[in-house]
Amino acid sequence: MAVSSTDGPLPLGPARQRAVLSALLLAPGQVVGAERLTEAIWPAGPPGNAVASLHSYVSHLRRQLEPDCPPWGRNRILRREPQGYVLAVEADRVDARRFEDLLREGRQLLREGRYPEASRVLRTCLDLWRGAPYAELGDYEPAVCEAARLEELRLATLEALWEAELAWGHDYVTAIAELGALSARFPTRERLGWLLMVALCEVDRQAEAVAVYNRIRRALAQELGVDPGRELRSLFARILRDESVGRACVAAR
């Protein structure tokens, strides 16, 4: 996790102090109770001095986030409320929220057939990623669930990006390399395999596309006990019939 100001990155302190900020970022603008923060910082159980430690972490974070605030002044960014603490930050200042906004914009551009623009927005979206989300919170269940949700959206963003790139007809060599690596890492993710097969057919490498299909079919059978879905089966059949499955196939979706 990182926080930047106009003067550059801010030092956020030790791991548990960063965990406080991460827990507050799970619900920006909302009151987060001390009990919930304690659970996030010490999921295995808090120490005897948990309350004092929490107050200390919050105090240090306030000084970093608002260095010009007088000692007894009212903090605007990290505030104490009767029921807990509030991280008062606009949604568009949080990368996770900006990421989702850009993903929606990129998908809309893709639906409208504005492929170069969609590609640009989706790349900007992916550039916001810096490591695993909420890594500071370890086994804290709400953070684990949110991190998994964001990771799923990152994969969906990659799929949308390469769909735009293929529909645009842009750099098949790079597309095949990137999609090949992603498909190998996520062998049961059919959409990645579908896009890789289309890219291979676009440069007349149909035999390799057939091999990709067979690899996905085996992975699905072994790991999930299912057959490939309708879209992947349809693409495979078109390849066997030697029908065109290139850019027009992607753009028609």
UniProtKB/TrEMBL annotation:
Top-level taxon: Bacteria
Record bears the keyword Glycoprotein: no
Residues in the DNA-binding region annotation: 1-89
One Gene Ontology MF term: DNA binding
Family matches, as SUPFAM superfamilies: C-terminal effector domain of the bipartite response regulators, TPR-like
Entry keywords, A to Z: DNA-binding, Transcription, Transcription regulation, Two-component regulatory system
GO biological process: phosphorelay signal transduction system; regulation of DNA-templated transcription
PROSITE patterns according to UniProt: OMPR_PHOB
Protein name: OmpR/PhoB-type domain-containing protein
